[in-house]
Request: fold
Amino acid sequence: MAGTMTHFKFIEDLNKKLKLENYNLFLLAGQGHDLLFFIKLSELKNFTKRKEIINIIANNKFDKTIEIWQKEILKTKNKNLEILMYGYIAHHILDHYVHPYINKISNNFKKLNHETLESIIDYILLNPYNYKFPKYKLNKDVKEELNKIFFETYSIKNIGTFLNNGINNLTRFIKIYRLDKFGIKKQTYKLIDGFLKNNKQKYEFLAFRYNEEEIDFVKKNNLKEFNKLYNLALEESIKIIKEIRKNINNKKITKINDISAI
Ligand SMILES: [Zn+2]
Reply:
């Protein structure tokens, strides 16, 4: 995935061209399958299972999901369901373009793992401390329709409910786990990573607090290539979403290519 702030920035840029109504929902929808990550503390035990689901939907049958999604939009005429689909598509395309690059770089530099590199780019592109996080409450119909779409493609229950919960939990998740004005969370995560030395999952990157050296390193070495891929993803997203929108207005379904977001 690209980072959360990067996905917000991407929708910001995209909407300059698309001018969709209901911008807040579009911003949240642009978090795509990452929404499944934004869980409550009480659901922590489900985290591994969530990760598995994310892997499946990020890598398989994107084309089929979007086809079924369009059919459901034509059937229900639900405008929110349509905006959610455009956000989901934009997320997937951005990940598809930038992911291979992030993987390549983080394999070459042991110090900068995948998540840290992503998060530093996040921090540079759109400062989370000055950002007003969007809010939106979906109604029940949309949740059920999403459940149906994803079940039809993947035979997995409740993905729509998880996406909806992610939309509700996102802001709180970032405040609790990521914003770190005083550096306390960073220190805590460091301790945890130390304790769980053999754990593959590291937490230190989570705190939006990186030292100047790391930030300068990323600015100097990574941003140019990253921006190039970002802009390609932007052009592609504008093209695809415009076409789907036009066709939906004419009650037609657009076939798109199956691309992976890993
Ligand atoms: Zn992602």
Remarks:
- The mean pLDDT is 92.
